[in-house]
Amino acid sequence: MDENQLSRGTKAWWWVAGVVVIVYALFPVAWIVSLSFKTPSDLATLQFLPTNWVWDNYDNILRGDAQDLFLSALRNSVGISLIATFISVVLATFAAYAIARLDFPGKRLILTTALAVAIFPVISIVTPLFNLWRNIGLYDTWPGLIIPYLSLTLPISIWTLSAFFRQIPWELEQAAQVDGATTWQAFRKVIVPLATPGVFTTAIISFFIAWNDFVYGISLTSTEAARPVPAALAFFTGASQFEEPTGAIAAAAVVVTIPVVILVLLFQRRIVSGLTQGAVKG
Amino acid sequence: MAAITLKDINKRYGDGFHAVKDVSLDIADGEFVILVGPSGCGKSTLLRMIVGLEDITSGELRIGDQRVNEKAPRDRNLSMVFQNYALYPHLTVYENIAFPLRLAKTPDKEIDERVRRASDLLELNEHLERKPANLSGGQRQRVAMGRAIVREAQAFLFDEPLSNLDAKLRGQMRTEISRLQKRLGITTVYVTHDQVEAMTLGDRVVVLRRGVIQQVATPRELYENPVNLFVAGFIGSPPMNFISATVTGDSLHTPFGEWKLPSSRTVDLSGHEVVLLGARPEAFEDASVVSDTVREHGVVFDATIDVIEWLGNEQYAYVPYEAPEDIRAQLAELERELDSEALRTQLVVALDASSRIPEGTPASIWLDLRRVHVFDPESGENLTVSALAQRGEAEPNQPAATGDGRRPAPGPGTTDQPATASGSATESGEAPATS
Asked: pLDDT tens digits for A240-255?
């Protein structure tokens, strides 16, 4: 038997284990999707598939009563997450490049500080930040969320990107300089194209972090001026005060999941490793 | 194309390490110069200082008639082939070669012409649209050379370009580089630690040791008249044999008997108690195959050969012997510097392929005393070369130097064996073939 080939028994076990993991991970998602198509009366029946498939919940959040709450939140979420991601990736690219290439005092300090910031629990910062933001007028504004999000996304971006930059052989840059490039040209024409997969990976991770945040979103906003989707979901109300807005929340959850899935599918091909293969000896 | 002039170049790193010390060198326009030495001798640092990737601590570097110390690499107009090729993996072979031209904003039509010309020269035509990752080692090497020659650079710099190739390909590419350089006639500086590359490629070879130039000479001159122990031990494979000898008057007492140097090789031994004699493996021969006409120029001694390596065109015999402790320590130190390890003191003797000396038995070995060098064990200086230079018989560092002192020596009897024929001018003709 070929060593690389798994025996039949082993293969079967891998399949079983894989299916278990997939079901475990995707069942809640399927449940939410199913909930989002149920009528309010159907919610408590505990059956998996809706008895009647209806679009009422989607209609409610996109056109109905919850429209104001949801659509503005969606706009806020997309805008804030994209801006935070963009700033974070640009800053992290330069920082990581410097960390990977240059020798300067305090290099280790920057890396450890970045790590320390990432470790710090969000909940412990949020109260002082709330007071500070109120005083300086950043409360309930886009920048008021973008800045804390940067503190979440920058450390991980710097760490991932500097790992990527370290993989790029330094000779490539030197070769470019000998070939007549300025430092900036060498960076732009050689380093950046090679680091692209790293940049995309980092961007996606940053976007998820910003997109999924709840604690900052609910604490540092008060109106639809800046409230992101995760926070907005908590403000959904049912048709009457005795009715849970479960269906609407489920529909909104499905809607906010879609961009994330699209993003991953879009950039899946860009996140290919091994692009630097062949630069130096094989 | 331009000459490169280095004047008192020094390199001191931030941690105080003095990598290159007072290097002065004139590289003529169109010349092929090799920088060679064991690892850590500063050869790569020197090359990187020429190209501008390393700052020059002190001294002056001129390319053509311009001082370039303060210039960035891109303003020096040199092209370099890196040890690991440093091809741009995201660009095709065509774009890799065109890269320097694109940076120089050359018109597309001219770029195309020049890239095609370079790829014709290097036989890369069918690979132009491929990415470096899909190329073999030799092809990548050629792409790197293409990128270097596509531009009209002042000089080519090579940093151990062949060390990542397998032995066969290395031989081919070596010839290719030599051909290319002769065809383009561009000043070339080539760094290697491989002495075969150094001997075969260069017009002149610069031997470096711990950042200091030891000798700058043609390959032939280096081989025949090394100025010191280091150069003598570094150039040549198998390396030169070093035999310790105590001096009494003008005779030398060695582990293999009492020897006297012929008058053509005499050096002033006064003031030296112990010297090291250096003899290339091919200065030895099986006494039974030496013709009578040359026999009297050497000595015959008995020694036990323990291992013989037969290579077809010649054979190497190994003769272990005991050396005094301090000499052994010194030779071991030298070996360490040359990146190898001396396990025992032994002679490596090149015998004629027809010689039938069996292993493990005492044999008569002849040594051509006209080809023996005398080294001062303390300073490492080659006393023979300095003596010859004083007498004007050898002109070190002259390309055409053939005056290696091997003239007929009708002097006092220098052999242990009875001389059979009168002196003749026969050269032993075992000098290395020039490239």
From this structure: 666 677 888 888 888 8
A282 assigned to some structural domain: no
Contact flag B100-A276 (C-beta cutoff 8 Å): no
User: Which CATH number is B286's domain given?
Assistant: 2.40.50.140
Length of chain A: 282
Q: Do A178 and B52 touch (CB under 8 A)?
A: yes
Average pLDDT over residues B122-133: 87
A174 touches chain B (CB under 8 A): yes
Structure-derived torsion over alpha carbons of residues B406, B410, B415, B419, reported in degrees to the nearest 10:
120
**CATH code of the domain covering residue A78:** 1.10.3720.10
- Output b/e per residue, B56-68; b: 16+ Cβ within 10 A: beebebbbeeeeb
Which residues in A lie closer than 8 A to residue B132 (C-beta atoms)?
278-279
Range of the domain at A35: 9-45
- Specify the range with the lowest mean pLDDT, choosing from A19-23, A58-62, A266-270, B7-11: A266-270
B82 and A281: CB-CB below 8 Å? no
Cα–Cα nearest to B348, from B195, B431, B239 = B239
Of the listed ranges A40-49, A147-156, B244-253, B308-317, the one predicted with least confidence: A40-49
pLDDT in tens, B13-28: 888 888 888 999 999 8
Query: Residue B275 and residue A144: Cα distance in Å, rounded?
Result: 83
What residue in B sits closest to A194 (Cα-Cα)?
A: B90
**Chain A residues near residue B87 by CB distance under 8 angstroms:** 278-280
Our CA-based measurement puts residue A279 at a distance from the nearest CA of chain B, in whole angstroms, of 5
Mean pLDDT across B403-410: 36
What separation in angstroms does the CA of B308 have from each of A153, A271, B90, B365, B395? 69, 59, 52, 14, 37
Residues 192-211 of A with CB under 8 A from B: 193-194
Across the interface, whether the CB atoms of A177 and B90 are under 8 A apart is answered: no
Q: Which residue has the tokens 């940049």?
A: A199
Give the strand pairing for B32-36 and B18-27.
unpaired
Residue B39 resides in a domain: yes
Q: CB of A234 within 8 Å of any CB in chain B?
A: no
Does residue B286 have a pLDDT over 60? yes
**Is 0.90 exceeded by the ipTM?**
no
| 8 A C-beta contact, residue B347 and residue B319 | yes
**Which residue, B210, B158, B167, is CA-closest to B338?**
B210
What is the number of H-type helices and E-type strands within chain A?
Answer: 12, 0
